[in-house]
Amino acid sequence: GENVEQHPSTLSVQEGDSAVIKCTYSDSASNYFPWYKQELGKRPQLIIDIRSNVGEKKDQRIAVTLNKTAKHFSLHITETQPEDSAVYFCAASPEEVTGYSTLTFGKGTMLLVSP
Amino acid sequence: DTGVSQDPRHKITKRGQNVTFRCDPISEHNRLYWYRQTLGQGPEFLTYFQNEAQLEKSRLLSDRFSAERPKGSFSTLEIQRTEQGDSAMYLCASSLGVGQGNEQFFGPGTRLTVL
């Protein structure tokens, strides 16, 4: 089955700096890669996702890049703000023709943005 | 609130007791997923429904676990003869149907504590 590795496990940055979180996956059939943000005691919230037919996607201060050959994808947050502090999870799945897929999650990265 | 809802939010039970959790997905979503999340880990897939049909179960789902979605709307997850190792956050997620993407939206979770 799929295995997703996520690094680093914790990341501390100063407000205004950039943050990068990296994930690798093992199943070459995976073609859908979402990122979730989970604040303490709250539900995981989808913040951005990418499918294997593109190499990069951007939404304001957040961007995701995908390298299918190397089987890795990354989350980039620019101009970090204290409210970006949370645990971030990457995930991967084989989004098949039927649309069915099971998400396999990484173990998460705790991002702390200091004012 | 039109998001995914779960009930109860917290459950404390004694070892050996049975517990049941409920999930109400976003109304137009016909896919429903159950995940389990323990401290410091990402969500782990348990089972998945397409309408009322349970299409996949993880090996994590022992015989003590059963899930239903009788009318293709809300779902229940029952754990029989609870063990201390069952203590976790149980998350429900839902997504749209075939050809409409697999963005999964999570509920707030039910935190189970087995004493």
Provide a short characterization of the protein structure.
The complex is a heterodimer of chains A (115) and B (115). Chain A has no helices and eleven strands.
**Uncertain residue segments of chain A:** none
The biggest sheet of chain B, with number of strands, parallel, antiparallel or mixed sense and barrel status, is: 7 strands, mixed
Shape of chain B: globular
Shape of chain A: globular
Main β-sheet of chain A: number of strands, strand sense, barrel status? 6 strands, mixed
SS element count, helices of chain B: 0
Query: What structural class results from the helix and strand content of chain A?
Result: mainly beta
Helix-strand string of chain A: EEEEEEEEEEE
Strand content of chain A: over 45%
Total beta strands of chain A: 11
Q: How much helical structure, as a percent, in the residues of chain A?
A: under 10%
End-to-end distance of chain B: 33 Å
What does this molecule look like?
The complex is a heterodimer of chains A (about 120) and B (about 120). Chain A is mainly β and about 120 residues long. Chain A has strands at about 5, 10-15, 20-25, 30-40, 45-50, 55-60, 60-65, 70-75, 85-90, 105, 110-115. In chain A, the strands form 2 sheets. In chain A, strands 2, 4, 5, 9, 10 and 11 form a 6-stranded mixed β-sheet that branches. A 5-stranded antiparallel β-sheet of chain A has the order 1-3-8-7-6, with no helix packed on it. Chain B has about 120 residues and is mostly beta strands. Chain B has strands at about 5, 10-15, 20-25, 30-35, 45-50, 55, 65-70, 75-80, 90-95, 105, 110-115. In chain B, strands 2, 4, 5, 6, 9, 10 and 11 form a 7-stranded mixed β-sheet that branches. The model of chain B has no long low-confidence stretch (mean pLDDT about 90). The interface between A and B is medium-sized, with 26 and 27 residues.
